[in-house]
Amino acid sequence: MKTTLKLMATTCLTLTATMAVADGHMANEMTIVSWGGAYSASQDNAYHQPYIAQSGISIINDESASEAVAKLRAMNEAGNITWDLVDVEAADAIRLCDEGLAMEVDVDEVLAAAPDGTSATDDFGGALVSDCFIPQIVFSTTFGYRTDMVPEGVEPPSGACDVFDLETYPGKRALNRNPIANMEWALLCDGVAYEDVYDMLETDEGQAQAFAKLDTIKDQTIWWTAGAETPQLLADGEIFMGSTYNGRLFSLIAEQGQPVGMAWDWQMFDLDGWVIPTGLSEDRLARTLDYVYFATDTQRLADQAAYISYGPTRQSSAPLVGKHATLGIDMAPHMPTEPSNAENTFYNNYLWWADYRDDLDAKFQAWLAQ
Amino acid sequence: MLAADGRPLKASLNRALRRQKIRALFLIAPLLIFILVSFVMPIFDMLLRSVENQIVGNTLPRTVVALQDWDENADTAPDEVVFAALYTDIALAAEYKTHTRLGSRLNYEMTGISSLFRKTGRAVGRFETDVYTEAFQAADPAYADPAQWAGWMQDDNIRAALPQTTNTYDAWAQMIVEEENDIPAEEEPWDFVYTALYADAAGGAALPISVDLSAIEPVSLQASFAEIDEDWIDPDVWQTIKAFSPSYTDGYFLNAVDLLRGADGVEQRPENERLYIGQFINTFVMSLSIMGMCVLLGYPIAWLLANLPARSANLLMILVLLPFWTSLLVRTSAWKVLLQQQGVINDLLVWMRIIADDGRLTMINNQTGTIIAMTHILLPFMILPLYSVMKTIPPSYLRAAKSLGATDWTAFWRVYFPQSVPGIGAGCILVFILSIGYYITPELVGGTKGVFISNRIAFHISSSLNWGLAAALGTILLTVVMVLYWMYDKIVGIDNVKLGG
């Protein structure tokens, strides 16, 4: 009987302890969710460390941004929000906003104005794609190719449409295993005008045309799900060219010195930024807003570009972008927003995708499985 | 027969036993509660999501009721009554910020509804229904007095006379308390309350203070909605809303088996959207192949383990267990390095001139890759049960068979093999059930054709947020596994399965 009692007491104690830990959000610490790797490091250097030095608040880095949407929903249902600030892509910000999982923010009230007095709304401009979204960086999905595998006497590929040109550039390709970006490129490279792409994609004929174009390279394509796969495949010489996020290609070229070149034409612009979960207590919300005000001002956004080749979303930050913090090279030529890289760019239409994503995804996966 | 204390022996014994049972129950109670709370309940909660659909009725309660009178087979949009209900529902939902959530739910059924609801939530506050508000307030200042409104809404006679107004005012008041943290008796009602008041009055109800209605030019809500988006007068949109208005739906299950509820009942999805049946078949075929490969490779190893002298058997055992202790991701990535086209195996084959440099084999990002990598990963689950069963088969049986004149093959097939069948059974069940729900390895090496149904479930949980569909797929998977288990029990008998000596 004594043993039983002991056992039960221990169980109770453990349970209470676990609950205490789960509930114990310290008064002076906040949990910020991001993507990990070089990206989190750039945020740590540009935002977290200066903020910690200034405020004395400690920041816990959670690297589960790739599951953020599902986890936020689960937390919301459980009524226990353990995150204070989450880094998500713009499309997910829209989704979270629609689901009521992210808080709507009044940009001019919450964010700093530019140094010259321009309001935050004007400074961020078109990057404010959702009421819940606080933009941080512009990145792009673009192509890298093996410079040593370009056939002799041929100009190296310059952009997305070269991926469909198997005659000039034989070899395997890598593309994202979801319809976003691929469908647009397929139509664009099949001669559809830029401004008609989304109208065409709404129709069955347009979708059929896009799939027919993708069919031409289907058996030469490896479909990736993680952004790190394409750099890996390029480094191994498994593919001739492949799409991925431009920052990954930058580190492959500039930091690892691989024989890889960039093909910027028709890069797909995308945004990444913060969302604040709904349901934070007042003091946590105040702390989060204080951090966000600090971390999204003009200087901080420009600072981040010294660590990773993603462009700041504020117009006022662009002139402040300097050299890479450790490599000492100019960052501007590696930015997706650099004019010579951005001759032809594609702006992802998030709101359109919010409608058509489920439908096209089913069709895309069915097409892949054929 | 009586016990020492005078009670019947049987009752006394029962009492003692019961006390023991309860004590035993207390001992396992922590584990039992833990399993119930952390395993059984979440699974049931998840499975329930595959049929749950209260969101439509909760977000658009008035519209759902009003829609009951609308004939979904007619080729016209519903009438003004439904749009009036929709106006109130959406105006309230926009304050609660639930309209977008409903939009993404219905978007699973009909593409485009998501933005329709998002747009409507923004525009619904700008309808021209303020003419009603102004007209009532101009007719008598009492209509602009929040306290007067609150007073009316406590008067049972007025409530009975103005059913729509009452219903709308109550919902509005609740929203004011919950969302705005204000007191309804201090807030002027919003336009949609006056709209409901006008509807009651136009229907002939007696107003608390009579107003001349003829001066008011009625606003067509149908036209107002159509102005936001033409889709609101598209009968298809309304058919979708009506079809998914009950609290429970089979829509997710239909979707999970490539069906949909069309105009004339259940029908197959268009061919370019059929996905899941193929994925289920793929999953089963690959799991069976992996199981078969594991038996073929595992059986000889288990036999060696059981029959070699202890020293070499131990060494072999470590070789079996070592990969078992290595991280799953490391092992899977290692297969990538080995199998890819510029990988070790292809390099070796080219070097040995077995294949040409431009004819390198594709062994990864397809079914082959998944089957190879998963066979390797699941092999210990086959070897260990086989080994533990083979260890109990006395070697003297084989010797006896041979001394009675059996050839090696006969001795193995007739004597040894039947005794090792329980081990094969256990190994097969383990490997098959583990592989059928496998996720990470197919994701990494499976490409587009070597992926399992679990990869789609993961996609719907973490990316598309269509948890209902994920739950339906999961339920089907669970049911099929249970049916297979039951069949296995009927055919082989679960008593014949041994996990250990």
From TrEMBL, chain A:
Pfam families: SBP_bac_8 (PF13416). The keyword Coiled coil does not apply. It comes from the Bacteria. Keywords: Signal. Residues 1-22 form the signal peptide. InterPro entries: SBP. PANTHER family: ABC TRANSPORTER SUBSTRATE-BINDING PROTEIN, SPERMIDINE/PUTRESCINE-BINDING PERIPLASMIC PROTEIN. This is Extracellular solute-binding protein.
Automatic annotation (TrEMBL), chain B:
Pfam families: BPD_transp_1. Coiled coil: none annotated. The keyword Metal-binding does not apply. The keyword Membrane applies. InterPro entries: MetI-like, MetI-like_sf. SUPFAM superfamilies: MetI-like. Residues 280-488 form the ABC transmembrane type-1 domain. It is a multi-pass membrane protein. This is ABC transporter permease. It comes from Octadecabacter dasysiphoniae.
